Amino acid sequence: MKGRTAVEVGADGVAVITINNPPLNLFSVDVLLSLKESIEGTLLRDDVRAIVITGSNGKFSAGFDVTAFGGSQAKRTQKELGFLAIEFVTDILEAARKPLVAAIDGPAFGGGLEIALACHARISTSSAQLGLPELQYGILPGLGGTQRLPRLVGLPKAIEMILMSKRVNGEEARILSLVDAIAPSDKLLIKARHWALDILECRRPWVISLYKTDKLEPLAHARAILKLARLEVHKQNPNLMHPLICINVIEHGIVSGPRNGLWKEAEALQELRQSSTCRSLIHVFFAQTQILKIPGITDMNLLPRKINKVAILGGGLMSSEIATMLLLSNYQVILKEKDGKCLLEDISRVKANLQNHVKKEKATQEKLEKIFNLFTGVLNYDSFKDVDLIIAAESESLSLTEKIFFELEICCPPNCIFASNTSTLNLKLLGERTKCQNRMAKTHFFCPSPVLPLMEIVCTHMTSPQVIVDLIGFGRKMRKTPILVSDCNGAVNRMIITYLHAAILLAERNVDVYEIDRAIKSFGMLFGPFRMIDLVGFQVASMISKIFVENFPDRSYKPKLIQIMQQDNREGESNSKGFYVYDKEHKPSPDPDMMKYIEKARTISDVTIDSKLTTLSDREIAEMILFPTLNEACRIISEGIAFRTSDLDVASVKGMGFPAYRGGIIFWSNSLGSTYIYSRLDKWAKDYGEIFKPCAYLSERASNGTSLGNQVAVARTKSQL
C-alpha cells in the first residue's frame, strides 16, 4: 500500500518488509507505524525465521519528510519522546529475537539509515548512498544515530559524517564496517536473505550496534576528540548551537551509557525542532524547491534539451572560472579570444584552476588530463557549427554585442542559445536588433564560484519557455542553484553592490576596514565585504559599481576608495594586493598601509570623521551594511523582478554568502520587524545620505506593521517577465 509497508514471506522463512512511499520512500509517522506493525507481526509468525528490511524501486529510504521538521511542537512526556527511538527502534527492532538485515540500495539517509543501523547486519549495493544529513536542517539524528554510528565506524568518522552531513557510498561504507557486505542490485535481496539465515544459524555474528564497544576510543581519548570537534565547530561558526548540542549528546552516551544517550538525543531533538535555526534552514530548503516552479512555464511539463557543447566568447578571470566549471561538469568547451596572446593567458588560467582541484584532492591527475581534452581555444567561429550554448563575456557595448550576435546567427545552429554574462546589456533592446530574441538570455555567475553556487538567469517576455527550461537544466547539471529574474542589470548584483557601497561608506568615515569584515563575518556572512571585493577583483567590482551609480544616481553612494587603490595597481587577490595582502598560499593578512588610502578617499570626498561611527558595536556595523542591502531587495520585490520574496532569500544565501541558518535576507528581517528596520534606515538617511533612504515598499510595510516578505509568488505570468 502506498505510504506504508508490504510484507512477503518466502519459502525459506525470511520475511521481506518493503518500505513503500514513492518516490524516495520518505518516512512519516504513518510509515514508521506501519513498519513497526509489520515487524511486530512478523516476529509473532511461526513461519517467519528471519527478516529483511528494504525499500521499493531501488531506494531504501531518504529519511523523514522535511515537512515534519520545524514549527512549534507541543511539550511531550518522556514516554512520548522515547516512543520511536527507544520503544520501537531499540526495544522492538534491535531487541528482536529474530535476525533483521537491512538490504540497502539507493539512498539511506537520516531516519532511513538509523533504521538500518539498528538492524543486526546491513548489505548494500556499491552505489548506495548512506548519510545522516539532519544537521543541515538545524536538528540532530533522532532515531539513535548519535549513539549507534560512533559504535559502528568509530568516533572520528561518525563526527565527520554527522557534523558535516557527509555521505558515503556502499564501497566506502563497507571499508568503514558501516555495512557488512556488498551485492549487486539484482542479487541484493538474495544476499540479505542468506545473511539473515546465517545469523540465525550462528554462522555470522548477531550484532547489537547500540552496545558495540570495539570501535570506541578509551574515554579520555574520546573526550579529547570531542573537545577538538567543539573547537572546530566554534571556529567555523560560533553562532550555531545545534552542532554543539549534538556533540554533547554523543558524549553523554559514551560517558553514561548508550540508552541514556538515546534519552538525551530524544530530548535534544524536541528542543532543536522548535529553534529559530531549524525554522530558518527549513525555510531555505523549501525556498530552493520553489525557485524551480515558474508560473506559466512549470505546468507546460517541458523537459530540458541536452546541452553538450558550450562556447565562451571573451577571456579574463570570470571566463576562465566559467570554463573550469563547465569542464568539471563534462561539457565540451570552446573559448574564443580576440588574439593569440590573450588566448594563451586564458588557457593557462584554466589549466591552473584545474590543477588546483588536483592539489585539493578533488580530482586525479588522470581525470584532469581527460577533462582538459574537452577544452579548445580558438580565434574564429569555424568550430561553432554544432554549439548548443554561447556565453558571451566579451563586451559591455550594445552595438558590439549586436554585431557579435549577428555573426553568431550565421555560424551557429538554429537552436543554439545565446546568453550574455555581462550585467549592463539590455536584453530587450538587443533582442529587437537581432533575429534570435526568443533564444536570448543572460546567465550570471558569482565569484568565487565554488562557494557561491548561484546562477542567475535573466530573460525577457520574448525568451522561449524551452530556453528557460534548458538553462535551468544546464545550471543544475553544474550543481548550481538557478534563479530566474526578469530583464534587468542583475537583481543579485544590485544587492551585492549596495552591500559593498554601505561598507565602503563606513570605511571612508574611518570605521576600520578589518573591523567591518570581522563584524560581518561574526554575523555569519561567508565573507566580509572587503574580502569579497578582493575575491571578485577590483576591476569587476569597479565596473558593477559604475553601472549601478549610472542607473540609480539619486540613491547611490559614490565611493572613491577602490578607484584610488586601483591607481596604485591594487586588483585584489589576483595580484596579491587588495584590501588585504596575500602570501604565496593566497592567505590574506591586513595591510598596514590601508589607512593612507582611506585618508585620501576621505579628502577627495570631503567627508568628515563621525565619532559615533568609530564606536559602533558589531551588531550596529552589520545592520548599517545589511539594512541598505535589504532595502534594495525590497525594491527588487516591488519592481516585480523576482518571482517570490523567498527567491531573494535563496539568492542572498547562494550568491552573497548570507548565513542559511538565518533564513536568507528577507526571512531574517521578519525576526527584527519592518518598523525597526525602517526607523534605523530613516535616521541614517538623514545623517549619511540617500543610500539609506527607505524605499516605498519598506515604508508601506513598516507603517502597516507587516513583514517584508512571504513565500507567496508575485502575481505575474510569463508574458509579464
Automatic annotation (TrEMBL):
Record GO terms (molecular function): 3-hydroxybutyryl-CoA epimerase activity; delta(3)-delta(2)-enoyl-CoA isomerase activity; enoyl-CoA hydratase activity; oxidoreductase activity
Domain 3-hydroxyacyl-CoA dehydrogenase C-terminal: 492-582
Family to which this protein belongs: Belongs to the enoyl-CoA hydratase/isomerase family.
Highest taxon in the source lineage: Eukaryota
Catalyzed reactions: (3S)-3-hydroxybutanoyl-CoA = (3R)-3-hydroxybutanoyl-CoA; a (3E)-enoyl-CoA = a 4-saturated (2E)-enoyl-CoA; a (3S)-3-hydroxyacyl-CoA = a (2E)-enoyl-CoA + H2O; a 4-saturated-(3S)-3-hydroxyacyl-CoA = a (3E)-enoyl-CoA + H2O
Compartmental location: Peroxisome
InterPro entries xrefs: 3-OHacyl-CoA_DH_NAD-bd, 3HC_DH_C, 6-PGluconate_DH-like_C_sf, ClpP/crotonase-like_dom_sf, Enoyl-CoA_hyd/isom_CS, Enoyl-CoA_hydra/iso, NAD(P)-bd_dom_sf
Natural source organism: Abeliophyllum distichum
Predominant cellular place of this UniProt entry's protein: other
Entry protein name: Peroxisomal fatty acid beta-oxidation multifunctional protein MFP2
Coiled-coil residues: 344-371
A GO CC term assigned to this protein in UniProt: peroxisome
GO biological process, one term: fatty acid metabolic process
